[in-house]
Model the fold of this input.
Amino acid sequence: MQNPFENAMQQLKRANAVKAFPSEFLAQLEHPNREIHISIPVKMDDGSLKVFEGYRVEHNNARGPYKGGIRYHQDTDINEVKALAFWMALKCAVANIPMGGGKGGVTVDPKKLSKGELERLSRGWARGMADVLGPKKDVPAPDVNTTPEIMAWMNDEFMKISGEKTLATFTGKPLDVGGSEGRGPATGLGGFYVFDILRQKHNLPESCTVVIQGFGNVGGNAAEIFSEHGHKIIALSDSKGAIVKNDGFDIKAVNEFKKANGQIEGFPGSRTITNAELLELPCDVLIPAALENQITFDNAPQIKAKFILELANGPITPEADEILYDRGIPVVPDILANSGGVTVSTFEWEQNLKGEHWSEVDVFTKLKKILDEESTIIYEKSVALKTDIRRAAFIVALERIAEAMNYKVN
Done:
């Protein structure tokens, strides 16, 4: 499997080839400010002790406190977390919010833990990282396989240790412990706002055929939102399988089926296909909303989508980017497409610090304004520099980070 951090550094080089940045600035960006590894001993339900490996990477805080989710996955390792922290620094700069880039993780299959074991693991992560966290230092959030409940456990543990009372150290919390309205659908909704601006600029139809890889929080919300706005979802996948239905899915019915059966495969009227086949289906819009390295040098030539919206982090490798660009398939990069999540997380942090609670309407209005503006800026940059949207987004982000670090950029 490709090293995600090496991919991220290749993306940095691709952007720098279009607009050169100072070498000293790039040298700093190629290395995180800090990497933290911890051991988390957890007493299991059977009385045994298991030790899990936990991580936090603090990449760059020139624009504000480190910000970024915590991922629980059996394949999570330090290189993945480093890549995600780097992308998060760029993502916050793309959305023009006052945050830096960080990321956390634990190498664990959370589906194999009981609720009690999961709580003990989560509190252990918070205890092990307590020294580096805080509302003005480092503000974690949920990511793959972590939930508002897990954030509440971590927040509670951190408050016990630190005496911190603002609730602003963790975001993505439940509403009753300082969470923000609209945080659940924020990534999927933000992706839709970005898509809707760029759809018009790329002459896509008002009603598009859409394929979504990943039917978790982000992909599931995106499916509902796109469907509600008149787009036709013709294929979906989750961790267990993929399904296709040429006349489009009723997303609420798919959700109910998944709750009842634990999977989407077998949904009435659908045909089962492989994940590889799903990515290569003809469609207007392909939305990778699962994990990294899904579109590669090997399958990029077979992609038949007219437009790709990256709601996952790092789903397309740099080699695949070149192929898709040469083939004229626009890719909206993760650092723009899925920045709605971190933007609303930042709203939560701001509300907690001010002791406020905003309505969902206010949250979504603020989110749409930011993403409409930034999508337009990045699209115009791509046209001016005659480059793809990823390199344009990188360049906008790098210009903003460089300015915060007092580097002069022409």
Remarks:
- Residues 186-337 form a domain with the Rossmann fold fold (CATH 3.40.50.720).
- The first helix runs from residue 4 to 18.
